[in-house]
Amino acid sequence: MSTNGSNGSEYEHYEAVVVGCGPGGAAAAARLAEHGVETLVLERGVEAGSKNVSGGLIYAEDSAPYTIDDLFDGFREEAAERPVTDYRIHNIAGDKVKTYDLTDLHEHDTDWCDAVLRRQMDSWLEARVHEKTSETGGGVLTNVRVNGLLREDGEIIGVTCDELDPIEADLIVAADGVNSELAREAGLMDWEEPDEWFQGVKAVVDMDPEAVNHRFGIDDDEGVAHLFSGDLFEDVRGGGFLYTNEESLSIGTVFHLDSLVAEQAEPHELLDALLTHPMMAHWIGDGYDEREYAAKLVPDSKKVAHREPYRDRLVLVGDAAGQMQAQGPIIKGMNHAVTAGALAADAFAITRGNADSEAAGRRYAKLLEDSGTMAKLRPKQYDLARTVGERDAVTNVVDRVLESPLGSVALGNSLADRVLERAYNSPFLVSMLPDTRTGYTTVPTVIGEARGKSIRWKNDAEPPSLEERIGELTYDTDVGNPHIELLDDSAEASGAAVYACPVSAEAFGGGCYRTEQVKTNGDEETVVSLDTQPCVECGTCAIVADTAWEHPRGGKGVEYREG
Amino acid sequence: MLTKGVPDFSEGAVSFDEDGHLERGKTPTVMNPNDAFALEAALQTRVRHGGHVSGMSMGPPGYAEVLEGAMESVYTDDSYLLSDRELAASDTWATAITVSSGIEKYREEVADVDLVFAGFKTADGETGQTGPQTCWALEWPIVTHVIALDIDPDERRLRAKRLVEGDVDEIETVETPLPCMVVTDPEFEPTYRKASHRLTHKELRAETQERAADHDEHLTTWDHADLNLDPDYIGLDGSPTIVSSVDPIPKAPSEREATMIDPDDGTAMEPVLEELQPFAGGD
What we know:
Chain A: Its cofactor is FAD. Chain A: InterPro entries: FAD-bd (IPR002938), FAD/NAD-bd_sf (IPR036188), FixC-like (IPR039651). Chain A: Residues 14-357 form the FAD-binding domain. The complex is a heterodimer. Chain A is α+β, with helices and mostly antiparallel strands. Chain A folds into three domains: 12-81 and 116-189 and 306-377, FAD/NAD(P)-binding domain (3-Layer(bba) Sandwich); 83-112 and 190-302 and 381-430 and 432-472, D-Amino Acid Oxidase, Chain A, domain 2; 475-559, Alpha-Beta Plaits, CATH 3.30.70.20. Chain A is globular and about 70 Å long. Chain B is 29% helix and 20% strand. Chain B has helices at residues 35-49, 64-74, 92-109, 130-138, 195-212, 266-276, and strands spanning 5-7, 29-31, 54-58, 78-82, 115-118, 142-152, 157-164, 170-177, 180-184, 219-222. Chain B is α/β, with parallel strands linked by helices. The A-B interface holds A 1, 12, 14, 40, 42, 130, 134, 138-139, 141, 144, 163-165, 167 and B 193-196, 198-199, 202-203.
């Protein structure tokens, strides 16, 4: 650190500032330190992982230039939960279920894949990153929220923070997650279109390791991943998942945000539909004990992964750059964040000393292309299929055929069964799946209907109410300083938040968003009101409502224990 | 950094006998709560300017735990305990003589001292005299009620903001050459607005956790002989203050009558509701 910036300013200066200590930030910082770069990492949580949620699988791809265990020795043993050794998808129609083995798709290009819980994983990474970056004159600071970009003559030269004076840097890595304020301030990302996002909610369910082994028929060093699709979720496009951890299960649902809005669905109720389905009886049907309820917004890289994720000295990695790949039913995010973080660090090392402030960013974008990462995030075949798949007319025809007796029989015959299992397992085909009801609901439902077996097990799982779920979460509320401002309280502008927000619900007064009837001049009007206390900082309302959205100050807001 | 052990007056910890006298044997000893602010000031100074911070206290051998606590919470490098039977029952004057001798010995044998930090009066004595008297004995300048401070190491000057309480609280800015004594106000708040300071803070924390686990290794105890003090001028014999007697403060008599009513008892609640009726809202 030097107190004088390159231009003789009074700002503190570091060679690199990394914002966020999730997998993307951690990979960038570790690699920067390996290159001998003086690196400061700023994390807004009380500890890395306290603000993070993921469904829970991290992949190491054979084809990836960097995997997390390349960068962090002992990651799998010390930071991860169970490896995935069994991978299935369940197609559901009512109480009928047809299960396919998806192991082929899962293992395609996969070196290994482990379930993770983010508090454990990211806090472990934080300690390693601090060790590494301390050696080159930097380190990790928690409880610090970066709130904006420091500019000079319009050019980005550093960051501003709630808790610290402005800091100048030669490289700024925005690894500040799906709701990256830096990416938005730089004009590289927005919060405009619901159809560019998924929203996931998750319950971490307490379970004795012996019970996990027994119920899933696995050993200590094995784990399962189950996916769920079909009519379990009415017409909301999306699906469910169940992953085994060492001493718990991660069970959740992921839906297209635009579909949640269109169907006026309550995310926690969709999760409950999965938790209470008869099929789950054998796994969680007795003594259901939920440790934590969590929610997260997921960018759809097919639509939003930025092809040139840089501006001036700023580069975006991970969710901040929209680098979250939904490959059919398989969602890969953390692995790409790791790759991108490491590549951004390499790009800076290669171009170090270059007078052009965008040299590192340009090189980073090129490395994303050359390494094949961008092709995974934005597959060409999807762009082709999209033009067809999203044309309603075509989709409707396909749907009608599938729903007709003839179509159902065709799908349901034994030949189709084999073809379908193979189709599900084709990385090429699943990357073409259009984002319509067909892939998510119609096909799985028809499969379940025609080929599924009825399951009549009694599932006694009683998930907690939303109020109880919020009550179990840990918050350090920044009293008197709400981080979200509702700009337009009309039902038209912001009413969708009442149901789409995972900690709000129609007719529930204890959530973030609620509707109220207000009488004005004899007229009655419905208005939306906001209380940010129960907020889990997922960002849903930034998209579906008219808000001014910021993260809370460092250390404030929700603190996940599992994540 | 000067600190004192005091009885833990927090609820549940403190113990009184039937006559309302404090039972010291049954009440745990903790660091004087006001000293925490002095510790923060010492730590902030160290984080910003580097240097070496020693904790010093006068009292029975058990006060070593107070110094150990100081090491854990604010990362002092070592501890000095002035402890001796001859020092028992010192009043503020005798304490000031002893502590200033301790500081002089430290300066002669350990290292020169730029700053001495102390908290604003102790929770047991409440006199607020020991700090200024110690400083008088050292013949140093003193700045009290400090809520913020800044040091210019090159000029060897300290600039401090102090809170002057009155009808209207005022904040005064004063400057003094080093060495000097700083007495912190409970309103003191450390600020770390530089990333490098926070990194230093974090580094000190990690270093100290290891050191505090082995506190005895870093503790030096000096008795009156070490300090070259005449027993006639320290302890009870050296204390001009005489406490004639202590009167317990009688409990204030209650001026209001109270009647207990079970809120679930409808009949008993009726008169209450009637009383409240006039104050209820319009519609």
